[in-house]
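so my prof wants the structure for this chain in the tokens format not the other one, which i didnt know existed until like an hour ago. anyway here's the sequence
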Amino acid sequence: MTLNYDVLVIGGGHAGCEAATASARLGAHTCLVTMDMNKIAQMSCNPAIGGIAKGQIVREIDALGGHTGLVTDATAIQFRMLNRSKGPAVWSPRAQCDRGKFIWQWRTVLDNTPGLDLWQDQAEELIVEGGHAAGVRTVWGIELRSRCVVITAGTFLNGLMHIGRRMVPGGRIAEPAVAHLTESITRHGIRSARMKTGTPVRIDRRSVHFEDMEIQEGEADFHQFSFTAPHRLLRQLPCWTCYTNPAVHDALRGGLADSPLYNGQIKSIGPRYCPSIETKLVTFPDKQQHPLFLEPEGENTNEMYLNGFSSSLPADVQIDALRKIPALRDVKVYRPGYAIEYDFFDPTQLKHTLESKIVPGLFLAGQVNGTTGYEEAAGQGLVAGANAALQCGGGEPFTMRRDESYIGVLIDDLVTKGVDEPYRMFTSRAEYRILLRQDDADARLTERAYAIGLADRSRYDRWMEKKQDIEGIEEFCKTTVVKPAEINPFLTNIGTTPLREGTRLTDLISRPQLNFKLLADVLPALRERLDTPLNRKEEATEAAEIRIKYKGYIERERMVAEKMHRLEDIKIKGRFNYAEMQQLSTEARQKLAAIDPVTLAQASRIPGVSPSDINVMLVLMGR
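here's what i got, hopefully its the right format
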């Protein structure tokens, strides 16, 4: 039996769902192949979306017309804006979700996406004809033919789970591994390697002594991931915090001999920024305690997730150690934590569209590219699915610069630098993070997305309304002069310098001690302006305030980015034989030959390529 499509997406995780819906939105006849239609977009680890830099990625996905933000808002049971004590460049939204409702919300999206079919099966072999990806063959002998294939297989490729000395093949607990797909891909010259990740124990809330924990409530303000979605549909629940102690550490150390991480059983590299509890003990032997966060898995379940306690130690060791925490002294668990090893492919063999340089028509997205995290996967999936559809329709490739989105930073890092550990996004990875704030994702991306059909008209219209609101507030602040008599008593009261003469509202807002909320209480004209029907949405007020307060920093960073654009405009792909360029260092020749960068700017970001190497290439380009 043979079925024919424009685009095939293999894997129904976060990358696969965004890839399939993006492809279908752009008019490609698309099929999403998944092993279990009841576990679409399963949250294999923590049932939460967002976090430091990850929240910005989700806001960008929403601005591009994707669904992760919408699904998160519809299923959120707690929302918080992280990093509030710092500047808005690093404010990061995060939501705890109802795991089961998240799956079915995504399933509803997929079922109602025109041009998208679902096929429940397991891909076993990549079909390549004439050097071009042409489809897959499944374990049931079905041939699914297509013009482009997007692989988003997560941790399932030759997945191997570990609890103590026991090893069980699987891509996720109680789900089978995919045994032969990796080999059918690598035989064409695509390099693969192994990585490791893990997940914590799941706890029965009925066995927890919450009186011995500290409550962590969510926030009830206007923030969410998509400003086109309804606000807080589900009952909001708290999270809880506690700590390990020396007795816990002693119990864990007693099991290290049976730890797959330390007995040689696991040889692959895990995520440095999300270490297991046993790794924390070995890395920080003098630390007396480590924080733990107990988080709900849903509105109506007793299952809870113990963030900070990832482990692959034997089950009895994990439970014994947990019972030495006062709040968990009577703990009952649903399942212990486990580690999982899986295959990934070298992302330096990809273009910025996430298409393979080796096999045209083959796109890779998510953990198969060496990343970790639902958000990183979803962002890649959207880009891969969109470019697969654009290729089928003869459109121009869709890519994003480093000063345009965190997704652009992520993909550029992957294809330029590669990975030696599971890649996780941080705000520190972005050199233009003042330009990449969570509040302005739609300003950066929605109009581009609408122009190619990724974002629909309603999303575009919503952004244009918000844009008009923001610009209206900015103009009001530029043209409104505040007199000393009407503001000085207030300024003196809060300890900031009083005015000597009339001052524009923009200058007042720029003071660190002041904001719109404070000033609206004492300036009736401002209060009236912010309450007008043209600006009923608080996000526009926040965006305008940030743009006014940080205008100098934003303009300075934009100038730096525009200078880098000059190097981005210098195309070098195919213009140099790096092996013969003796003017370059040996390391630079090797790295440039391996990556084959498209532009001089990309070349400058390759580890091992120095500024002097770039100067040599500039001179040679001049000749």
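also thought this was worth mentioning. The chain has a mean pLDDT of 95.
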